[in-house]
Amino acid sequence: MSTPRDVAVLVGSLRKESYNRKLALALAQLAPAELKLDIVEIGQLPLYNEDVDVSPPDAWTAFRDRIRRADAVLFVTPEYNRSVPAPLKNAIDVGSRPYGKSAWDRKPGAVISASPGAIGGFGANHHLRQSLVFLNVPAMQMPEAYIGGVDKLFNDQGGIGNESTRAFLDKFLTSFAAWIEKNTAT
């Protein structure tokens, strides 16, 4: 077997018991052999300020380097006020700078939004996709992933307890693996 594709996973919520973090961890367990999902922490990133880019904080440099090393990116996010949480937006901004040196450029990507509510973070999912277009991240269009009722999704071991949701996420990850191969520069 060849080396699995390195997928940087960004979790939009910083909350200790975040459903989206739990989902990201469950996805890492479900991932096909072609993918290795690795959560990249974003909570330590200082707020982006272009004035600081002349001598960037170590956290910015390490984050940008990690995203550049990744073969692809997966965003797992809740919805805050019909958009993405501030820490995730900050990570996107940090990775996109300095201008002309974006770490996101041409990284195949995918978005999963999850919420206890019925619409599963639809607004955040689509708002994030607007940014990904500008960042030149080819984002997988189908299958779309809006996970509603995420607060009832996990079994006692932290896995996906609902069989139909697990089957959907398996399909999503298999499709994402194919998307990465199709969109990876050789």
From TrEMBL:
It holds the Pfam family FMN_red. It comes from Cupriavidus gilardii J11. InterPro entries: Flavoprotein-like_sf (IPR029039), FMN_Rdtase-like_dom (IPR005025), NAD(P)H-dep_reductase (IPR050712). GO terms for cellular component: cytosol. Residues 7-147 form the NADPH-dependent FMN reductase-like domain. GO terms for molecular function: FMN binding; oxidoreductase activity. This is Chromate reductase.
